[in-house]
From TrEMBL:
Pfam families per the UniProt record, alphabetical: Fer2_BFD, Molybdop_Fe4S4, Molybdopterin, Molydop_binding
Keyword terms, alphabetized: 4Fe-4S, Iron, Iron-sulfur, Metal-binding, Molybdenum, Nitrate assimilation, Oxidoreductase
UniProt key word DNA damage: no
Name of the protein in question: Nitrate reductase
Length: 866
């Protein structure tokens, strides 16, 4: 049995993982020595072993739908790319990469595109995620430097979480905060979010501000700091910045943000009185048409108050993806050069000399949304997409899909065979997945960790950097891409960061360039800089030419979208606890689907009345761009006038599940980041003619008139269905065509169907006027071992055979599969705290992500009991 230390491939916390491989399979646990997590894992990390199976994987290259060898695929891709470049020039080519690639992959892609193809049209999904934060830091500090570490959070007096649902999205870091609060009861927590999230569980103060209004809140705070006597003259831009802030008194802020004056004052007092403050900010701030200004409004208050560059202080943008930071380091964004350099003449010359590149791109390239617009209008004729699923994650999905459908050459590097994006690919390259690949990632606190392979590569899967290097050879650049392994790529990247760097450039890991292969193998997590010069980061000097930090004048802006009588509601979108983005990996693990298995649309009780919505019923949400179907969840923590849904569902897991079908491509003018969090929509109840649940041994292509969601189940495919047209005849025809025997019966208001092949249950369908209540456990058991006699088969047809275990309810604790029913029962029977629930049922005793929900159930059930 071997044990390998590696890093979790999900969020930017960057937890260390120990993977064990034995005859029994893969087992993972948290690495107790990793400084990001000290042994903890959240539920997604803990379920990593379940994602290492090969079902659904892309294992062989394909060209125009046919499986081919690597040499055929590379040759065809090379010929087609060369011909497009020869005819239309390098600007007709684009790469669209991802913060989920390893640093080595990312470095290789950036080098090929900017240095050798000779255009800077390489952008990444980090444009949808971190680019406002990058702009914020660069404008204030002169470089993209995150000036905080996780320890700062633990030793602070006040932690402000703004636009972050860290309890669900950075769970291990959140648990570190929970623990710090237990050790230090004086540590206070403020959460700023239009909705009451699980993160609010530990908040001393929650400000449910109007969507998009954060700029006003922080500009008003700067006014308070100045009024209380801070010396703002120490910064460039102070006069202009303060001139605007002076107009933002508490009354104006309260009105702009839709908050009470007392709430705003309470926050300002807490900030002023706490000697040390860390502000954590993520997508509620970045994903906005004024996202970079909001980032600077936050940085401004930390600089002006001096709560910066010392332990327990600072403006801390948390990265989302495991290697968003690595992407920023290698210059993966179209607006940067490699090693965090810019397009100024000195940097251009330096990079060109280092690479030996004769046609290095001289100007920035197109940013994500512009890039897909350019594909749509035919300016870009070839795009290579690696490690991201833009058909789901970019705004205005229909336009993105149309653009891809019309693009003469779409290449996709993927680990999964079928995604919404790869359906448009002419050429598909199979990439190594987590557990198979080697390289480095950098987490939110600038800590570089190794990802190490512990599984051999299945089929024809190859490392992403290798695929890029092979393509470089096809295009005639073999000499500059002759690496034999990821270590060589990393050393080149490290050397470039230290090349002619006397401290002018913050990103310097030059000292790592000399690592031997053995040292690289044993590399332990390290925060940059790791320079050859002994020089720590001088955060007070920054990296502007005049060595002064800047306050950036911010005029607060609300959201861009305007609600009106037709589209009266603001739709907010984000993450749920147990899913990762477009679900290609987490969506197939049944344990991770038990918490929330459908696209829920959370509305306030007021809006439920206003729009005649019933909790648990279906609804349609639409904007001028598109439509989405979800299930209504009435949430008192939801601000009236806005609704929330997740960003995860897509055409591989649902019909009409993509939230980005509704979102307009409105972007921040400085960072190019789209406003994914605020879209004006209309919401309507949908009462279909019938609703059904279906389990099938095979994946089905359902007819267009049926609405469906696919859910992970262990042995079979589970679909939730609904429709306005009769479906049973289609289904019977399908089963008959397979040669299966059909058993059907009208049951209540619905029709139920079972299909058998030689005594084996192949498919089961249960329908009703509303969602049919069925016993999933028994049904799944019937797929493993078919009922022995006709009576039991008939009972199965009812969907709720008698004498079976009661329904678990929604799974609250995914680590130990503990359902709501059991938890409520335990509380009714006397459990009064999260601890006793943990002792009795084990729930909440592993990763702790479900503790906010356990607390909510305790509160709710104990109140009912009283
Ligand atoms: N479980 C899980 N975890 C993840 C991911 C995942 O897919 N699943 N993805 C990772 C990635 S790439 C990222 S970027 C991070 C994102 O991490 P987060 O940013 O924490 O996640 P989101 O749910 O996108 O949005 C955070 C919050 O912003 C709030 N918000 C919306 N509008 C506003 C506003 O105007 N003002 C304020 N103050 N708040 C607002 C939303 O209500 C939401 O609660 O998560 C990472 N972690
Ligand atoms: N409305 C709305 N839209 C959003 C957001 C939002 O909050 N609201 N959030 C935005 C944010 S912050 C982000 S980060 C994006 C995320 O959106 P995406 O990046 O599009 O989502 P993923 O599902 O993570 O896509 C990663 C793809 O890479 C594949 N993959 C995994 N590992 C590898 C590998 O090693 N190599 C290769 N070649 N492929 C691999 C996966 O199978 C998957 O298809 O979505 C953005 N879109
Ligand atoms: S907190 Fe993030 S990095 Fe850590 S185990 Fe969970 S998903 Fe992985
Ligand atoms: Mo992200």
């Amino acid at each position: 049995m071997s044990e390998i230390r590696t890093t979790c491939p999900y969020c930017g916390v960057g937890c260390g993982v120990i993977a064990q491989v034995s005859e029994k399979g893969v087992n993972v646990r948290g690495d107790p020595d990793h400084p990001a997590n000290f042994g903890r894992l959240c539920v997604k990390g803990a379920a990593l072993a379940e994602t290492t199976g090969l079902s659904g994987r892309l294992l062989q290259p394909t060209v125009d739908g046919a499986k081919v060898s690597w040499s055929q695929a590379l040759e065809t891709a090379g010929t087609r790319l060369r011909s497009i470049i020869a005819q239309h020039g390098p600007q007709a080519v684009a790469f669209y990469a991802s913060g989920q690639l390893l640093t080595e992959d990312y470095y290789a892609a950036n080098k090929l595109m900017k240095g050798f193809i000779g255009a800077a049209n390489i952008d990444t999904n980090s444009r949808l995620c971190m680019s406002s934060a990058v702009t914020g830091y660069k404008r204030a500090l002169g470089a993209d430097v995150v000036p905080c570490s996780y320890e700062d959070i633990e030793c602070s007096d006040l932690v402000v979480l703004v636009g972050s649902n860290a309890a669900w999205t950075h769970p291990v870091l959140y648990q570190r905060l929970v623990q710090a609060r237990q050790t230090n009861p004086l540590l206070k927590v403020v959460v700023i979010d239009p909705r009451r999230t699980a993160t609010c569980d530990i908040a001393d103060l929650h400000l449910p501000l109007l969507p998009g209004s954060d700029g006003g809140l922080f500009v008003g705070l700067l006014n308070r700091i100045a009024t209380d006597g801070a010396a703002l003259g120490d910064f460039d831009g102070a006069t202009e910045t303060l001139a605007i802030a002076r107009d933002w008194d508490v009354a104006r802020v309260a009105q702009f943000c839709g908050l009470e004056v007392a709430e705003v004052t309470a926050f300002y007092d807490a900030f002023m009185h706490a000697p040390k403050v860390v502000t954590l900010y993520t997508m509620g701030i970045n994903q906005s048409a004024s996202g970079s200004d909001k980032c600077n409004a936050i940085i401004n208050v930390h600089l002006a108050s001096g709560k910066y560059a010392r332990a327990g202080c600072g403006p801390f943008s948390l990265t989302g993806q495991p290697n968003a930071m690595g992407g920023r380091e290698v210059g993966g964004l179209a607006t940067q050069l490699a090693a965090q350099m810019s397009f100024d003449p000195q940097d251009l010359s330096r990079v060109a000399r280092f690479w030996g590149a004769e046609r290095l791109a001289q100007t920035p390239g197109l940013m994500a949304v512009e890039l897909f617009e350019a594909i749509g209008n035919g300016k870009i004729k070839a795009v290579w997409i690696m490690g991201t699923n833009p058909a789901v994650s970019l705004p205005d999905s229909h336009a993105v899909c149309q653009a891809l459908a019309a693009c003469p050459l779409v290449i996709v590097s993927e680990v999964v065979a079928d995604t919404d994006t790869s359906r448009y690919a002419h050429i598909r390259f199979p990439a190594q997945a987590w557990g198979e690949k080697n390289g480095t990632v950098t987490n939110s606190e600038r800590r570089i960790s190794r990802q190490r392979a512990f599984l051999s590569s299945p089929g024809e899967a190859r490392a992403d950097w290798w695929i890029i290097a092979q393509m470089a050879k096809q295009l005639g650049f073999a000499g500059a891409f002759s690496w034999q392994n990821a270590w060589e790529v990393f050393c080149e990247h490290a050397a470039l960061s230290g090349f002619e760097n006397n401290g002018e450039r913050a990103f310097d890991i030059g000292a790592l360039a000399d690592m031997t292969p053995a040292q690289w193998e044993d590399m332990t997590p390290v925060r940059w800089p790791v320079s050859r010069r002994v020089a720590p980061l001088n955060l007070w000097q920054g990296w502007h030419a005049n060595q002064r930090l800047r306050l950036v004048p911010v005029t607060p802006q609300g959201m861009t979208t305007a609600c009106d009588a037709l589209y009266p509601l603001v739709l907010n979108s984000g993450r749920i606890r147990d899913q990762w983005h477009t679900m290609t990996r987490t969506g197939t693990v049944s344990r991770l689907m038990q918490h929330i298995s459908e696209p829920l649309v959370e509305v306030s009780p007021e809006d439920a009345v206003r729009f005649q919505l019933t909790g648990g019923a279906l609804c349609r949400i639409s904007s001028p761009r598109g439509l989405m179907v979800g299930r209504v969840a009435i949430q008192p923590g939801q601000r009236a006038g806005s609704a929330f849904t997740s960003m995860h569902w897509n055409n591989s897991f649902a019909r009409h599940g993509r939230v980005n079908a509704l979102v307009a491509p409105v972007c921040d003018p400085h960072s190019g980041q789209p406003e994914s969090k605020q879209t004006a929509v209309r919401i309507m109840p949908w009462q279909p003619q019938w609703q059904g649940e279906m389990f099938s041994r095979h994946q089905l292509t359902l007819p267009g008139f049926v609405h469906w969601w696919r859910k992970a189940a262990d042995t079979v495919f589970h679909y939730t269905l609904a429709g306005d047209r009769e479906f049973a005849s289609w289904l019977c025809q399908y089963c008959t065509a397979q040669g299966w025997q059909i058993q059907q019966a009208y049951w209540g208001q619905g029709l139920n169907i079972l299909a058998w092949r030689e005594g084996q249950l192949m498919l089961g369908f249960w329908s009703a006027a509303t969602q049919p209540e069925i016993d999933t456990v028994t049904i799944l058991a019937a797929f493993v071992r078919a009922p022995d006699n006709a009576e039991m088969r008939h009972a199965l047809l009812s969907g709720k055979p008698a004498g079976i275990a009661p329904d678990e309810g929604a799974i609250v604790c995914s680590c130990f599969s503990v359902g709501e029913t059991a938890i409520v029962r335990a509380i009714t029977d006397g459990c009064q705290s999260v601890q006793t629930l943990g002792q009795q049922l084990r729930c909440g005793s592993n990763c702790g992500s479900c503790i906010p929900e356990l607390r909510a159930l305790l509160k709710q059930t104990l109140t009912l009991k009283e």
